[in-house]
Structure formats: C-alpha cells, structure tokens
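Practice problem. Given the sequence and the SMILES for calcium ion, write out the predicted structure.
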Amino acid sequence: MKRIIATALAAASLTAGITTATITTGADQATAAEASAAHLNGRNQEQNQGRPDRYLLPGDAAGSRFEGIGVDERRGLFYVSEVTGGEIHRGTARDAQAEEWLAGDGTDGRFTARGITVDAAGNVYIAGGPNGIGNPDRPDLWVYSQQGELLAALRAPGTADAFLNDVAIGADGAAYFTNSNDPQIFRVAQSADGWSAELWADAAGTVDRVAGFNLGGIVLSADRSAFVVAQGNTGQLWRFATADGAVSAIDTQGADLVNADGLVRQGNELTVIRNFSKMVATMRVSADGDSVNRVTQQASDPDRVYTTAKMLHGRLLAVDSKFDEQPAPSGPYDVVGSPWS
Ligand SMILES: [Ca+2]
Ligand SMILES: [Ca+2]
Ligand SMILES: [Ca+2]
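Answer key:
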C-alpha cells in the first residue's frame, strides 16, 4: 500500500501542470493521437532547442541494463524498462533526469521487462520478456494507468515459454505483443469482463521458430491495415494484416537486417534498429506495409547497443541497453536524443 501511494504521488508531481487530453474511443483513438502529436510537434519546435541531448536513467549499484521505451506524446512523457529487475523509469521531454516510476525486483511479479507502449488514454503496457518462463505464477505482461495503478498483470495464454519482446497499439486501440519464441502475437484489451490476453495471430508454418530472438519490434502501417514485425535472428520483416492476422513476408530487397530489434515508422520511412550489429537500416515502406525499398544502412555508436527508439515531440529517443558491457554494465545510463541523424 505504501508503494502504491508513493507511486501515485510521484506520478502526480510529474504530471502537474499538464492538461489531461480528452479521451476518445475506438477507431478515432489513434487518429486523434496523431493529430494531437502533430499539434504538439508544431508547438514544441521552438522548445526543442532547450531540450536535453541525453536523459539520465536511475540504475542499480551493481549495474543496470535497459531495453524498451514508450512515449506519451500528449503528456510529453517517456517510459524506459529495466532488464535488470524490471523497474520502469519515467521522464519528460524537458528534464534531463528520469526517475524510477515503478519498482521492480518482484513488484507485481515483475523481475525483468522489455518493450513498452502507451495508448491514447495514457495507459502503459509492459512486455515481460522471459519473466514468466519457468515461473508459471509470474505474469508475462502488465498494464498500468498513467497514475501508476496496476490495471492488469496477465499470462500469455496457451504457451509456457512466451518471451514477450515488444508491443504496439493497433487500429482498434488494443495492445499487440510479439513473442520472440513461437511466432505469435497476443492481443491485450479491456472488455466488460475486464482485461484479458488472447492469442491473436499464430504464424507457425509461415514463420519458422529458430534459435535466438524471433519476433520483436512491431509498428502499425500508415494505413493501419497491418503491423510490420521484425524477426531479428533471421533478419526478416513480416506483415500481419490487422483484419485477421494473416501473415506474409515483406521483400526487403536483400537487405541485411540481422539483429533487427526495435522498429520506428514515421510516415513512409521505416527505421530498423539492429542492436548487436550496431547498425541502423532506414527504408521507405508502403502505406500498407506490404513492401519496402531504398534501404540504406549506417553504423550507430560503437560504444552503445541500441535496442529500440520512439519519437517524442518530433525527436527520436533511443535506448542504450548496455547489453555489450560484460560482466557488469556501468553508468551513466541514458536515453540518447537523435542518435544517428
Ligand atoms: Ca534494477
Ligand atoms: Ca526489443
Ligand atoms: Ca557502452
């Protein structure tokens, strides 16, 4: 109880002065969010000059690693997941120092965390990676309100070894989580019966499960007819139709996309962050997510292993995972703004 009160107070202080946007429903949600984001982008153009280049994250004394980032465009917030313990940190576009927002080390059954996203209402969805593997009593994912109230802690149904890697909001406002083991996507939404997770797409037979990380990064196509999903171990991109989960291969023109992790789509530009390759691939993607072309590659910072990134108020924020620092990572721990532009 003490923890929940403390979390709520921290959330209240972080959001003080930020007007809560009107919450819309159904298919209007994403459209309203995009319109709001565009408005904010314009409004914040001048403020960008004063924004920090890097955002410092809290870390453990013994060393921390990080993986996912979610953004709340309306409220100017970002959330970063910590692999080492499952803490969730939160910062604002303006402040150089992020703060621990949710505790880890077993809080709500969370010992580690991966991808994060935020829906139009400001609810925060957290993928648990291997949190539930070998621990059937532990959740695979969580949903929190923007005040830090636990809304749901769920298992991915029908599997004992789900490694939920990343998550995106769909055209219907629900959250879609990728599984890095079996080639599956789980849908999480609230109904009259409460929050639930269901197997939404199973691509077995089309997408082979091979050693390493299978499905990871996920983004919605511009026309909202599909998700584009990365398969890191094979370096492939897959299209999942939002209507029925039908899966098809995206022809990537022979591009090397091995270690594809996070995806970012801005209009018709798709960025593929290739974590351990320390490379970033950029390409044009069709509105329906069916094809890509004009693939270019560039090296990212050799001292960082970026896992994923999100746009916040017109600027890309990338997570340095510290995955390459062995045996123990050391600080400073940070999120980097515009790391490869
Ligand atoms: Ca920790
Ligand atoms: Ca990932
Ligand atoms: Ca480093």
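Check your answer against the key. The chain has one domain: 2-337.
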